[in-house]
Structure formats: structure tokens, C-alpha cells
Write a structure and sequence with these properties.
- By secondary structure, the chain is mainly β.
- It has one domain.
- Helices cover about 5% and strands about 40% of the residues.
- The protein is built from 1 helix and 8 strands, in the order αββββββββ.
- The strands form 2 sheets. Strands 6-5-4-7-8 form a 5-stranded antiparallel β-sheet, covered by helices on one side. Strands 2-1-3 form a 3-stranded antiparallel β-sheet, with helices on one face.
- The radius of gyration is 15 Å and the shape is globular.
């Protein structure tokens, strides 16, 4: 069993993007402000005119944690979870795969690149790997 994200009309575009290998960021069509996580109204100008852009899929580790307990359904512990500063200027939380949980395996300012974990026909999760 995998913990599934909440998908709604504000985030559907993001999950549609992961299905086709795109990391999509919400953009306000009125003022151009970028936003993650997505929401109904722009936090800069309060417009409801939203679109998206496809991100480069690259970023830098702003912060991270190594999750060792409690267990997470469908995951083998430990899990490295990072707060990633995308090159486009927004932050995103995600799992870092391929990095162990030992000291020195991941560090603040490490460069990361997005990859995709196809869970099933309905869910593809973005994950991060060291660039």
C-alpha cells in the first residue's frame, strides 16, 4: 500500500504532468508569479487566472531530514526527504532516492534532478536524485 496524495482541481495539472514526465509549476496568468504548492488564487495579486509552466526539473537541497520512524506504508526506512529549491524559484518537498541515510550521502546545497516513480496507472510520483 502506498500513501496517495490528495488530488483536487487545484493540483490536477501537477499530477497530469507527472504522468507524462513533466514537473509543472503553477503560474499566475495575471502577474506571472510562480507558486508551489498550487492553490486557487495568486498570493501576489489575488487573481484566479492560473496556468502552469514546465520546470527544468533541477534544484538545490535547501534542507533535508532522514525519516527513520514511524513506518510509512509502502516504503522501506530510512527515507531521505528534502526541501528542494527549484531553479525556477519555488520550493518543493520530495523524496531523495539513491542517497543513503549515512552522514555525507546528502548535504545542503547538493544539486538534485527530478525523476519519476510510476506507482501504478493512476499515480506517478516525482522523486529526486543527486545530479
Amino acid at each position: 500500500m502506498t500513501v496517495r496524495p490528495m488530488v483536487n482541481r487545484d493540483s490536477q495539472f501537477f499530477w497530469d504532468g507527472t504522468q507524462v514526465g513533466e514537473l509543472r509549476i503553477q503560474v499566475c496568468n495575471a502577474c506571472g508569479a510562480k507558486r508551489f504548492p498550487p492553490g486557487p488564487a495568486c498570493q501576489s495579486c489575488e487573481a484566479y487566472d492560473r496556468g502552469f509552466e514546465v520546470a527544468s526539473g533541477e534544484g538545490t537541497v535547501f534542507s533535508y531530514v532522514v525519516h527513520r520512524h514511524p513506518p510509512v506504508p509502502g516504503k522501506e526506512l530510512p527515507i531521505v526527504i528534502a526541501l528542494v529549491d527549484l531553479d525556477e524559484g519555488v520550493r518543493m518537498v520530495g523524496e531523495v532516492v539513491g542517497a543513503g541515510a549515512s552522514d555525507g550521502d546528502i548535504a545542503i546545497c547538493d544539486r538534485l534532478r527530478v525523476d519519476y516513480n510510476r506507482v501504478d496507472d493512476d499515480l506517478t510520483l516525482p522523486v529526486w536524485r543527486k545530479a
